[in-house]
Amino acid sequence: MGYPKERKEAVLKKMLPPHNKTIPEISREEGISEGTLFNCRKAARAEGRLMPDGDTTPAGWSAADKFAAVVETASLNEAELSTYCREKGLYPEQIRQWREACEQANDWDRNQNKRLKEFRKADGRRIKDLERELVRKEKALAETAALLVLRKKAQAIWGDNEAE
């Protein structure tokens, strides 16, 4: 943007809470093209600044913006956090919730692997039980087949005793 630094900062502040103006709104007010404003916001984000997408509430912020807010507030004490939240139009509880969500997201792989191991273990036990039952049934079937063969041989040798 070929504008003075002060004007850039003033325009960027309109994108932040409590104003939360959208880029089309700012474009109409300031007479600056939307593409220029998008590029300005992109450059500010690249510098590591928190630049929400202009939704009216922090609940509509992107995951990247929420994460940026968590990172910005990580080293703040309660008083500094309160001041930060007032400036950005947030509540400290929102920051805490976002921090918890970030922490859980990083543990997702570990929890998923743990769950998969439990499923594999349960499946392994079930397979082992089914194989044991199959072996038992195969033995019973083999014994029954052997008894039938012996019965037929006995009938062939001694004749049909059942008919008498």
Question: Would you mind describing this structure in some detail?
Answer:
- This protein is mainly alpha-helical and 164 residues long.
- The chain has a domain at 5-108.
- The chain is 73% helix and 0% strand.
- It has helices spanning 5-15, 23-30, 34-46, 63-73, 78-88, 92-106, 108-158.
- The radius of gyration is 36 Å and the shape is rod-shaped.
- The protein starts with a helix and ends in a 6-residue tail after the last helix.
- The relative contact order is 0.06.
- The model has no long low-confidence stretch (mean pLDDT 84).
The portion of residues assigned to helices is over 70%
Ends apart, CA distance between termini? 113 Å
Computed CA radius of gyration, to the nearest angstrom: 36 Å
Which class do the helix and strand fractions yield? mainly alpha
Q: How many H/I helices?
A: 7
Along the chain, the helix and strand elements come as: HHHHHHH
**Share of β-strand residues:** under 5%
What are the segments in which pLDDT stays under 50 over at least 5 consecutive residues? none
Oligomer: single chain
Largest sheet: none
Approximate shape: rod-shaped
User: What value does the average pLDDT take?
Assistant: 84
By DSSP, the count of extended strands is 0
